[in-house]
Amino acid sequence: MPTFRGAIFDVDGVLVDSPHEKAWRESLRQLMESDWSDIRNRTSWSPEAFTSRVYEEQMSGKPRMSGARAALEYFHVPDDDGRRLAEYADRKQAMVVQLIEAGDFTAYPDALRFIIAVKDAGIKVAAASSSKNAGLFLRQIRLDTFAQEHGIVSASLRPGLTLLEFFDADVSGRDFAHGKPHPEMFLTAAHELGVAPEDSIVMEDAPAGVQAAKAGDMAAIGIARANDAELLAAAHADMVVTTLDHVDLSALANGRLATTKP
Fold first, then answer.
1. Residues 6+ positions from 51 with CB-CB distance below 8 Å
2. Of 188, 97, 178, 91, which Cα lies nearest the Cα of 135?
3. What is the pLDDT of residues 55-77, one digit of tens each?
4. Cβ distance 229 to 222 under 8 Å?
5. How far apart are CA 108 and CA 15, in angstroms?
6. Is 82 exposed, middle or buried (0-12, 13-18, 19+ CB in 10 A)?
7. Could you check whether the bond before residue 181 is cis, i.e. omega within 30 degrees of 0?
8. In whole angstroms, how far apart are CA 220 and each of 111, 150, 194, 197, 232?
9. CB-based contact 201:218 (threshold 8 Å)
10. Among 52, 97, 192, 202, which residue carries the largest CB count within 10 Å?
């Protein structure tokens, strides 16, 4: 019977409710209302046009420069020499770091319960996010405190343990030659866990991430936290759930994907 030996987790939108979407939206608004106000009427941008759907479809899961480029192309922002691309990416990065340091994020309880149970089942875990800021989130989340508050007893935990330290491998924020939807990041994570791609499962909230997992011959669970189940299904996720609490852990331990929800 096949079994999953490695579980690979995206960070933003899977483990934490991050401020990335807010940073992308607000940094572009600031530019359009100040330095770029002279070209605003040549674009399709407006504050109302930058919706969560636009973020999910255009930027979510992509490296910073790719995300910035996708946004500028989507809103038809002219950028012949690439200066606006760099300016937008830099401003977004500064804003997201400021938001993270201010604690403007929360960890998803279902994800923390799930990752503890997965590791207790003998499956190795890895973090794989395009974001160079993933470590800033992960080192602020205390798993021992979470477990104590939720009555979780686990042999995988010890006093003072952060989520960053919990991972067996972390490939987040590296300068890979190819970003998602290319599988390079996930294949590297599987390699560093010492497991074959076909024995790995990826947890993703972005269509580009699901596509990357499938391109790497891995199973993929899509987490539809933003009312985007159809986008994840269209990206060929093996299973789509709105919360990781709905994943059948006993089935997962036996190499099957099933939900506990009827």
1. none
2. 97
3. 988 998 788 999 999 999 999 99
4. yes
5. 6
6. exposed
7. yes
8. 15, 27, 18, 11, 10
9. yes
10. 202
CA 182, 188, 191 angle in degrees (round to 5)? 140
Domain spans in the chain, listed from the N-terminal domain onward:
6-17+105-253, 20-101
Contact between 158 and 185 (Cβ < 8 Å):
no
CA dist., res. 238 & res. 29, Å (int): 37
Residues 250, 243 contacting (CB under 8 angstroms): no
Specify the CATH number for 20-101; select among 1.10.10, 3.40.50, 1.10.150, 1.20.1550: 1.10.150
Domain 6-17+105-253 has CATH 3.50.90.10: no
- Whether pTM > 0.70 for this model: the answer is yes
Do 6-17+105-253 and 20-101 come out as alike in CATH topology?
no
DSSP string for residues in 49-64: TS-HHHIIIIITTS-H
